[in-house]
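The records we work with from here on pair a chain with its fold. These numbers are not coordinates but entries in a learned vocabulary of local backbone shapes. To see the layout at work, look at the sequence and tokens printed below:
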Amino acid sequence: MIKSTENLVFNEAPKLLQQGLRIGLDALANQQPGPAAALPAGRPVSSNFVPTAHRARRIAYSPDLDGRADPGEIVWTWVVYEDDPSRGKDRPVLVVGRDRSVLLGLMLSSQDHHRNDPNWISIGSGTWDYDGRVSWVRLDRVLDVPEEGIRREGAILEREMFDLVAARLRADYSWS
């Protein structure tokens, strides 16, 4: 019973919400596009990008759906654009550590052009992407994610995939 409830809450409900959102967006599609997404009001945003080696620390897989984001979980938060800090995008982030109330996260992308980029690693597909697309994690910079800025917990990354990310952080960026 608990497993099926968790499945409904964490896997199926977000898909239904996304479908509803798409239907609404399709209905609005005939309108003129508005300006690029502005920063959300009233919620902290992820706006600090740090080279990964500067945040080197011990990394351990410890997801726990207890309401606090932990390493191994993928969460959604607003991330500002590097080239225009006044705008940004709500996106998934892999939690790899914590510094008090600030999470350390690695940005995810489903853009296929990251396939051959050495700063990105494939983690396959999962429930964090409603369309089931393969995702990549950016390794060369860490985002400071204010815990209050998390929109929702998105998924738990499989241990095997997290271990691949951790191995690259250890080998290339002096994490332990």
Q: What stands out?
A: The chain has two helices and eight strands.
